[in-house]
């Protein structure tokens, strides 16, 4: 299936892209090559091969959630440039009326 220059121009219009004549001429054979590669992959996929999401099996590598003591608040805030009421003080970035 050959991709024509007019089809590329239509795709560009639908994508709201502005392409020059040279770009339209260059993209047509590139898109045709991409579609050919996808068609070859579709031919290889056999019905007897189960679909997979990963090449190797995955296992959960997360550790169990365990509650542990953290640093004291005073130690954490000691390194902060500004603190207020036991929290980090940061510059306001949003308008309070919004």
UniProtKB/TrEMBL annotation:
Signal peptide per UniProt: none
Family: Belongs to the GatC family.
Gene giving rise to this polypeptide: gatC
GO biological process: glutaminyl-tRNAGln biosynthesis via transamidation; regulation of translational fidelity; translation
Enzyme class of the recorded protein, top EC level: ligase
UniProt cross-references to InterPro entries, sorted A to Z: Asp/Glu-ADT_sf_sub_c, GatC
Functional description taken from the UniProt entry: Allows the formation of correctly charged Asn-tRNA(Asn) or Gln-tRNA(Gln) through the transamidation of misacylated Asp-tRNA(Asn) or Glu-tRNA(Gln) in organisms which lack either or both of asparaginyl-tRNA or glutaminyl-tRNA synthetases. The reaction takes place in the presence of glutamine and ATP through an activated phospho-Asp-tRNA(Asn) or phospho-Glu-tRNA(Gln).
Matching HAMAP family: GatC
Pfam families referenced in this protein's UniProt entry, alphabetically: GatC
Quaternary structure annotation from Swiss-Prot or TrEMBL: Heterotrimer of A, B and C subunits.
Name of the protein described by the UniProt record: Aspartyl/glutamyl-tRNA(Asn/Gln) amidotransferase subunit C
Source taxonomy: Bacteria, Bacillati, Actinomycetota, Actinomycetes, Frankiales
Listed transmembrane segments: none
């Amino acid at each position: 299936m050959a991709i024509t220059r007019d089809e590329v121009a239509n795709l560009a219009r639908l994508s709201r892209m502005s392409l020059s004549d040279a770009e339209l001429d260059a993209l047509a054979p590139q898109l045709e090559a991409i579609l050919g590669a996808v068609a070859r992959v579709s031919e290889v996929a056999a019905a007897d091969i189960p679909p997979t999401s990963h090449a190797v099996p995955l296992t959960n590598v997360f550790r169990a959630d365990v509650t542990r003591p953290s640093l004291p608040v005073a130690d954490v805030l000691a390194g902060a440039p500004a603190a207020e009421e036991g929290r980090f003080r940061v510059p306001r970035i949003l308008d309070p009326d919004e």
